[in-house]
Design a protein that fits this description.
The complex is a heterodimer of chains A (390) and B (339). In chain A, 67% of the residues lie in helices and 5% in strands. Chain A has 390 residues and is mainly alpha-helical. In chain B, helix 3 runs antiparallel to helix 13 and helix 9 crosses helix 13. The chains are: A mainly alpha (390), B alpha/beta (339). The interface between A and B is large, with 54 and 60 residues.
Chain lengths: 390, 339
C-alpha cells in the first residue's frame, strides 16, 4: 500500500529536512558571530580613532630590508616590502622542503640499513634533532655562524672568488651574457624532452617489453644541451667577482648567515621527522613483496623503484604533507634570527603603521595560501600514486 | 614564541575591543581594582627591568610609581606587564593596560592614528650609532656600505633608512627582535654598527664584554621624545598622568626632594604651599587627594633624583643630564605653573 509513503511526514521527523535545518542554524550562528565580532571591532576602532583599511599598502615603506631578490629600496611602498618578505618566505620554504625530503629519505633508508653503524648513526640523528626545540636549533646555528666565522677583512678564501666570513658566503657569478639565456632555454628544452622520452620509453616497454636506459640519455641531454648553447653563444667567461670594499664585499652573490642558519635549522629538524615517516612507509610494505620481486629477477634498484616505493608512498605522502606545512609555518621563526621573512616585514609594517589587525590578517592569509597550495599539490600527487585497482 | 607575542595581543585586542571598554573612568576603574596595570619594557636596564631581587627599577618604572603615588598614596600599587615594542600600543588600545610607560617615542601618527595621548616627556632621547673603536670610524657619515644591527618595532628602522638615503649611502640591516640576541650578534661582529636610541645603546654598551672597546658616534639622527602614553578619550586620566610626570620636574625646580619634602611643607613660599597641597586646590582639580604631589616626591622623588638613581653618571649607563636638565640649567625640562 502506499498510505505510508503518501502520508505526510511531520517536518521535524524527517531526518533529511532536520539535518538541513541544523546546518542552516549552524551557518546562521557562524555568520552572526562573525558579524558581531567584525562590526564591534570596527565600531570600537572607530571610537578610538584608529584608522582601518589597506590604504597603507601604497604608502612609502621607508625602511630597508636585509636581503631581497627584487630590486627593493626604502623608497618603495609597504606593498612591495611585503612582497619581498613573501618571496623570502617562499624561497626558504621551497628550498627547505626540497632538501628536507632528500635528506629525510636518505636518513630514513639508512635507518633501515643492515649496516649497524649506519643505522645507529641515523637513529641518533633522528633522536637528537627531533627532541630539541627548533627555535633553540636556529639560535645555535646562527650563533655558530657569527661566532666561528671571521670578520670580512679576515674572510676565509678557500677558492678564488669565494669568501666565507661572518657576513655570509660570498661568491662570484658569471656576468650577464645572452649565451646564458640560450643555455637556460636549452636546459628547459632538455627537461621537457626528457619527460616526453621517459613517457615514450614507458609505453614502449609496456607494449614490446624492451627497456631503454632513459636515465643516461636524459642526463646527457640535461648537461649537453645547455653546454652546447653556451659554446655556440661564444663561451663567455667574464665573472662578477666579489671585492672587499670598505665594510663589506661588493659584487657577487651573498648567502647570509641568517638565511643559512634558518635553512639549516629547519631542514635538519624537519628531516628527522621525515626520516621516521619514510622508515614507517617502507616497513609498511610486507617483506613478501620484496621477496617476490627479487624472485622474478628484478635488480635491487628496480625492486625499490617499481615495487617497494610505489606502495610505501601511499603511506608516506599524507604525513609528509603535514611535515612540509610544518616547515613552512616554522619558517616564521625567522624573526628570532633576523631573516627578513614575511612575518618580520609585516611586523615592521604593523609597528610603523599601527595597522595591527590588517597586518596579522595578511600574515594569516599568506600562510593559508602557502599551506593550501602545498596540500593541494600533495593531494594531487597522492591521487596520482594511488594503487590502481584492477 | 615571538609570533605568539604578536598574535595574542592582537587577538586579545579584537576580542576586548568588541567587549567594549568604557571610554572614560580609568581612574574609577583603577581605584576599584586597587592597582594600576602598567606596560613597561621589562628588559631595558635603567628604564624598566626587574633587579636581581625581582623589584622593578628604572626611569619608566619610577614614572609609573609616581602615578601610583598620586592616585593611591602608595607608589607600589602597580602590576607590571612587560611588552615588546610591537605589542605595546595594542596592549594599551585594547585596555589590557591602563598606562604605557615604556620608552615610547611620541609621534604625530601614534598620537592620531593609534588613538593614544602622550603625557609630558620623561626623557629626551635621540637615535645614535654604537660602533667598535677598532674600526676607526669617527663619524656616521663614514658608514657607507655598513651592515647595521637594528632593533625592530620602533621608529629606528625608518630613521636609519632615512639617514642613509639623505647621505646617499647604502646599508644592510640585520633586524632581530630580542635586544639580547641582537647584542650578541653585534658584539660577535655580525654587524659593523648598531643603531638605537642613544640611551639604549648606553645600556647595551654597559653589558658588552669590553665596554671600553665601543663608542657612540656623535651624530644623533632623530628626535626621540620618550613619554608615557594613555588612551584617547579619557581626559581626567590623561591629566593625572601628565601632571604626575610634571610634578617631579616642578619639584626639582622648587628644590623639593624626597629628603626635605616634610620640612618644605612648612615653607612660606606660596608656590611650594600650593604644590604640596598645604593650600588646597590642585588635588581637587585633578580628582585626587590634596597630598598627591607630596606623595610623589616623598615616595618616588623629584625628577633629578629619579634620573641620577636610574641612568645618571654614577650608574653603569653614565648618561649626562644633557637635554634632560631643567630649563634653568640649559635643558628642556620645563613645566607650566602648578596653580
Amino acid at each position: 500500500m502506499d498510505t505510508a509513503s503518501s502520508e505526510k511526514i511531520p517536518f521535524l521527523r524527517d531526518p533529511e529536512k532536520r539535518a538541513l535545518l541544523y546546518q542552516i542554524f549552524t551557518v546562521l550562528g557562524v555568520a552572526l558571530l562573525s558579524y558581531y565580532l567584525i562590526s564591534n571591532t570596527l565600531a570600537n576602532l572607530e571610537r578610538q580613532s584608529i584608522s582601518t583599511g589597506f590604504g597603507f599598502l601604497h604608502k612609502e615603506a621607508a625602511f630597508e630590508i636585509g636581503e631581497s631578490v627584487l630590486d627593493y629600496s626604502a623608497a618603495d611602498s609597504y606593498g612591495k616590502a611585503l612582497l619581498v618578505g613573501f618571496i623570502n618566505t617562499l624561497i626558504v620554504s621551497f628550498i627547505g622542503i626540497v632538501l628536507t625530503v632528500i635528506l629525510g629519505t636518505i636518513i630514513g633508508i639508512a635507518r633501515l640499513s643492515s649496516n649497524w653503524l649506519v643505522s645507529k648513526l641515523s637513529a641518533s640523528y633522528i633522536e637528537l634533532f627531533q627532541d630539541i626545540p627548533v627555535l633553540l636549533q636556529l639560535f645555535f646555528w646562527y650563533a655558530f655562524f657569527y661566532e666561528i666565522l671571521p670578520a670580512p677583512k679576515q674572510a676565509l678564501n678557500p677558492v678564488t672568488g669565494v669568501f666565507l666570513s661572518n657576513r655570509g658566503l660570498v661568491f662570484g657569478v658569471p656576468e650577464y651574457h645572452p649565451a646564458y639565456l640560450a643555455a637556460l632555454t636549452a636546459l628547459i628544452v632538455a627537461i621537457i624532452a626528457g619527460i616526453i622520452l621517459k613517457k615514450w620509453a614507458h609505453r614502449r616497454q609496456d607494449t614490446t617489453g624492451k627497456s631503454l636506459p632513459t636515465g643516461k640519455i636524459i642526463t646527457a641531454m640535461v648537461i649537453g644541451l645547455p653546454l652546447l648553447a653556451w659554446l655556440l653563444g661564444g663561451a663567455p667567461t667574464a665573472m662578477n667577482t666579489p671585492v672587499l670594499k670598505g665594510f663589506n664585499f661588493k659584487g657577487g652573490v651573498t648567502v647570509t648567515p641568517e638565511f643559512t642558519a634558518l635553512l639549516l635549522g629547519l631542514v635538519l629538524y624537519t628531516a628527522a621527522f621525515v626520516a621516521e615517516i619514510v622508515r614507517a612507509g617502507i616497513q609498511s610494505v610486507s617483506k613478501g613483496q620484496q621477496e617476490a620481486a627479487v624472485s622474478i629477477g628484478l635488480k635491487p634498484g628496480q625492486v625499490l623503484n617499481l615495487v617497494i616505493l610505489p606502495q610505501a608512498l601511499r603511506v608516506i605522502v599524507p604525513p609528509l604533507t603535514s611535515q612540509m606545512l610544518n616547515l613552512t609555518k616554522n619558517s616564521s621563526l625567522a624573526v628570532a634570527i633576523g631573516y627578513p621573512d614575511f612575518v618580520s616585514v609585516a611586523g615592521t609594517t604593523i609597528n610603523q603603521t599601527g595597522q595591527a589587525i590588517e597586518g596579522v590578517g595578511l600574515i594569516m592569509i599568506v600562510y593559508l595560501i602557502f599551506s593550501l597550495s602545498t596540500s593541494a599539490f600533495m593531494n594531487w600527487y597522492n591521487k596520482k600514486i594511488k594503487l590502481v585497482e584492477r | 614564541m615571538k609570533l605568539l607575542n604578536k598574535v595574542v595581543p592582537t587577538l586579545v585586542a579584537s576580542v576586548c575591543l568588541s567587549a567594549s571598554i568604557g571610554m572614560a573612568g580609568t581612574l574609577d576603574d583603577v581605584k576599584a581594582k586597587g592597582f594600576i596595570q602598567v606596560g613597561v619594557n621589562g628588559d631595558l636596564f635603567g628604564f624598566g627591568k626587574p633587579d636581581e631581587k625581582g623589584v622593578w627599577k628604572g626611569l619608566d618604572v619610577d614614572t609609573a610609581r609616581a602615578v601610583s603615588a598620586a592616585v593611591f598614596g602608595d607608589a607600589d600599587k602597580i602590576k607590571y606587564t612587560p611588552l615588546t615594542a610591537k605589542t605595546r600600543f595594542t596592549a594599551l588600545q585594547s585596555g589590557e593596560i591602563d598606562l604605557l610607560s615604556r620608552n615610547a617615542t611620541q609621534t604625530l601618527s601614534r598620537d592620531t592614528d593609534l588613538g593614544l595621548n602622550f603625557a609630558h616627556v620623561n626623557y629626551y632621547d635621540g637615535q645614535g650609532f654604537l660602533i667598535s673603536k677598532d674600526l676607526g670610524i669617527k663619524s656616521a657619515k663614514e658608514l657607507d656600505g655598513a651592515t647595521v644591527c637594528v632593533l625592530p618595532g620602533t621608529t629606528t628602522e625608518q630613521n636609519v633608512a632615512d639617514y642613509f638615503r639623505v647621505q646617499k649611502m647604502t646599508m644592510k640591516p640585520v633586524v632581530i627582535e630580542s635586544t639580547a640576541e641582537l647584542s650578541k650578534a653585534f658584539f660577535a661582529g655580525r654587524c659593523d654598527v648598531m643603531t638605537s636610541d642613544a640611551s639604549q645603546l648606553a645600556g647595551i654598551r654597559a653589558v658588552a664584554p669590553n665596554p671600553q672597546g665601543y663608542t657612540i658616534l656623535p651624530e644623533i639622527i632623530s628626535k626621540e621624545p620618550l613619554a608615557p602614553a594613555v588612551r584617547h578619550g579619557d581626559d581626567q586620566w590623561f591629566d593625572i598622568v601628565n601632571y604626575s610626570v610634571m610634578a617631579m620636574i616642578e619639584a626639582e625646580e622648587l628644590g623639593i626632594t624626597s629628603a626635605n619634602v616634610d620640612e618644605m611643607k612648612a615653607s612660606a613660599d606660596p608656590k611650594i604651599q600650593r604644590f604640596l597641597g598645604v593650600s588646597p586646590g590642585n588635588g581637587k582639580a585633578l580628582g585626587l587627594s590634596e597630598e598627591w604631589a607630596y606623595n610623589i616626591i616623598k615616595l618616588v622623588g623629584n625628577y633629578g633624583e629619579v634620573f641620577e638613581r636610574n641612568v645618571g653618571v654614577n650608574t653603569p649607563l653614565m648618561i649626562e643630564r644633557g637635554l634632560n636638565a631643567l630649563w634653568t640649567n640649559g635643558g628642556l625640562m620645563y613645566t607650566p605653573p602648578f596653580k
